[in-house]
Amino acid sequence: ERIEKKIYSYKVVSAEDIIIPAGVYKCYKVIEEIDNKIRNCYWFAPFIGLVKWEIGNIKGVLHNCLKEG
Asked: How many angstroms separate the CA atoms of 8 and 60, rounded?
């Protein structure tokens, strides 16, 4: 994907079990590359969304999740 002058690419690299304060989730790990240099990682759980991320030196996790229905 091209946004202005930068090129972004995304690749699903693995399926992993993630243990975080909000629980245990089966996630897909996605790597984002910007101009073939910067690499960020995101973990997405089906039906939940983003549960863990590493953007540069910033790391975060989901701390609480309420399931409806």
From this structure: 21
